[in-house]
Amino acid sequence: MAPYVGALDQGTTSTRFIIFDRNGRIVSQAQEEHEQIYPAPGWVEHDPEEIWRRTQDVMRKAMQQKILHPKDLAAVGITNQRETVVLWNKKTGRAVSNAIVWQDTRVDGLVAEFAKNGGIDRFRAKTGLPLSTYFSSLKIRWLLENIRDARAQAESGELLCGTIDSYLVWRLTGGPEGGAHVTDVTNASRTQLLNLDTLAWDPELLSAFEIPAAILPRIISSSEVCGEATNPGVAGVKIAGILGDQQAALFGQTCFRPGEAKNTYGTGCFLLMNTGERAVASTCGLLTTVGYKLGSQNTVFALEGSVAITGALVQWIRDNLGLIQRSSDIESLARTVRDNGGIYFVPAFSGLYAPYWRSDARGVIAGLTRFANKGHLARAVLEATAYQTREVLEAMEKDSQIHLFSLRTDGGMVGNDLLMQFQADILKIPVLRPVIKETTALGAAYAAGLAVGFYSDLDDLRQNWAVDQTWEPRMEETQRDTSYRQWKKAVARSFDWVDPA
């Protein structure tokens, strides 16, 4: 058996290829950012060709760093930004337009139109999801309706469609020359086209959204061989695992038992709890989603609370306002003040996701006085992430009837000690950071490794998980309650900003 397993982690802002050893330690890695395209207010796009170039580059660089060859990799797993969709020509491999990113709000009018008949929960019973700009269904419909000749080409069998995992697997396994057009159940569950009971594309949903079934990928499990890579440097290596990024982090954090949960602090913030083989219907604004499926084993479901803007708010402070030079500077700037100075920042740039699902909300900064300075604003930016996490966690505990006694964390922001301490303070539970912080990529590597026998079973994976640091809550109860109450007031100020279409 080859000594290593690889993971391709295609995220919202960058693409990485990480090579792990059997213990989950990083052997080699490479990462490259890609352009964020904003053609109009609320629109967010990526260039699929650029993502494909970055994918090839990082795979080549990571292999070259350690002078590795295809025979050194037992398999490669893929994890990806989820609801982002691509529509491409199956003969040329060229996308018919830029990808529409999960944060994009251009289909807001369609959400309102569909909600007139049955409300935003019109399809929740089948899909576990409310109507929202977030999910893939209306994005695909928009592409078919607004890209010239797209619907005609789709109906004549010329086009393929999928989330980023589908696009990359198809390209990696040969593209026009026999590439595999597949997606796993976790990504499929984010399209709003999958029936959670049957784990298949639902004919009624496809009809409602007017999406031809022929353009969609075949649905497979999260851990099985779906093809072999054909690109130089990794040619012949099995592609053996696919997981949406947040489910990959759940798997990488070894949350294999019902009630175990993790929170990923990335571009957005995503809290997932394993609910076992039962799909728990949410009454508190959460999403019911597929957690993972290993080969022919029973499907494991999860509850998810999705927050659109967390790390992206730090990037906005950096790029749009120029208050910091690097994202990591946010912590030192926030430490120049003792508290937030009464400022609360609600980053509803693309509406509010869980637990509100308010597409009419927009970002607000509340509580400004002449006392406030950029340090207070920096602290409010970090605290916004922690407050939003508390709102989701409270909803999750109500839905699941399970009280969390600690929270496992991962993602780019977990290196921020100030944020992690405030998170523990506002939740009033310990916050744990694992030794291996790249849990999203690790989850994809684990899934691929299980499929080819690189790992024997889940116990193999549990042995790799260990705590690096724990933050205990130390905030006074009165301060915690007052701060959270003020946050709730600020959130209410963000509602009803966008007028109905």
Task: Write a concise keyword list for the protein shown above.
single chain, 501 residues, seven-stranded mixed beta sheet, 33% helix
List the helices and strands and how they pair.
Blueprint: E1 4-10, E2 14-20, E3 26-33, E4 45-46, H1 48-65, E5 73-80, E6 85-89, E7 99-100, H2 108-115, H3 124-127, H4 136-146, H5 150-155, E8 159-163, H6 164-172, E9 182-184, H7 185-188, E10 194-195, E11 200-201, H8 203-209, E12 218-220, E13 223-228, E14 238-244, H9 245-252, E15 261-265, E16 269-276, E17 287-292, E18 300-307, H10 311-319, H11 329-334, E19 344-346, E20 364-366, H12 374-400, E21 407-410, H13 417-427, E22 431-434, H14 439-451, H15 458-462, E23 467-471, H16 477-493
Parallel strand pairs: 1-5, 5-14, 9-12, 15-21, 21-22
Antiparallel strand pairs: 1-2, 2-3, 4-7, 6-8, 10-11, 13-14, 15-16, 16-18, 17-18, 19-20, 22-23
Helix pairs in contact: 9-14, 10-12, 12-13
Describe the structure.
This protein is α+β, with helices and mostly antiparallel strands. The chain has 16 helices and 23 strands. The strands form seven sheets. A seven-stranded mixed sheet has the order 17-18-16-15-21-22-23. It has a six-stranded mixed sheet with strand order 3-2-1-5-14-13, with helices on both faces. The model has no long low-confidence stretch (mean pLDDT 94).
Query: How many strands appear in the DSSP assignment?
Result: 23
Q: How many angstroms does the end-to-end distance come to? A: 59 Å
> What assembly state would you assign to the polypeptide chains in this entry?
single chain
Mean pLDDT: 94
What percent of the residues sit in helical stretches (DSSP H or I)? 25-40%
The dominant shape is: globular
- What is the strand arrangement across the widest sheet? 17-18-16-15-21-22-23
Total of DSSP H or I helical runs spanning 4+ residues: 16
